[in-house]
Amino acid sequence: MKLTALGVWGGYPTRDAGTTSYLLQSESGFNMLLDCGSRAVTELEHELQPTQLDAVILSHYHEDHIADLGALRQYRQLYPLGQDGWDGMMLPIYGHGENEYEFSKLNLDKVSEGHLYDVENGTKVGPFDITFLKTVHPVVNYAMRIVERRTGQVLVYTGDTGYFDELTEFAKEADLLLADVYFFKDKAKMPNHLSSIEAGQIAKEAKVKKLILTHLPQFGDLDILLTEAKEAAGNTVTTDLAVPHKKWQL
């Protein structure tokens, strides 16, 4: 699997970068978007044609994670049929059903179709087997454990969450942990988002290989945020900041 950062900020876009959105590509060439925050379409165009997306999966329905869904669908709706091989494929968008109104908006006639992911038994999306864990957040959010069947590689994406013990077991021995880190260590134990040291501790205890900090704060020195996470994660975990268009091979 290959993961590419598209948007990395939490809450709102700034400094020529958008909010949470990631392109996950399988070894077989399946292209899936993890969340679709602001600027996702513009940034995606630097990686591939938005018509080449095979699926989108959403952790939750806060605007900084879904802001560009409308633009993405309008892009595919208006793109000329036949150009660059575009066949007008319906875009499957996977989300939870615990907000019926938001889920209903995933359907757009002849453009996109909402699919409920199975939070109890897991869901197959293309070459991926995905299991889910409800997190600590003001609205319903699901962390995802994504396993590529062909390679056995594991990516865990927290979505938005405060700290809770079950996250460590959920992330156990992942090749890559993509973690919501909106706070520095002086604000550890905040209820809605992880701090640098909490993400580092989870990565260390779960024995993950790579920790990527995302949903970054617009305030403070991000080098300090990274240092705090590195110190908590220890030397056995490769820890990195998400930057638009940075790529990680699992």
Automatic annotation (TrEMBL):
UniProt-listed CDD domains: RNaseZ_short-form-like_MBL-fold
One Gene Ontology term of the molecular function aspect: 3'-tRNA processing endoribonuclease activity
Alphabetized UniProt keyword annotations: Hydrolase, Zinc
Pfam families: Lactamase_B
Residue intervals of the Metallo-beta-lactamase domain: 18-215
Spans traversing the lipid bilayer: none
Highest taxon listed in the record's lineage: Bacteria
Gene3D superfamilies noted in UniProt: Ribonuclease Z/Hydroxyacylglutathione hydrolase-like
Coiled coil region boundaries: none
Name this protein carries in UniProt: MBL fold metallo-hydrolase
Record organism: Lactococcus lactis subsp. cremoris
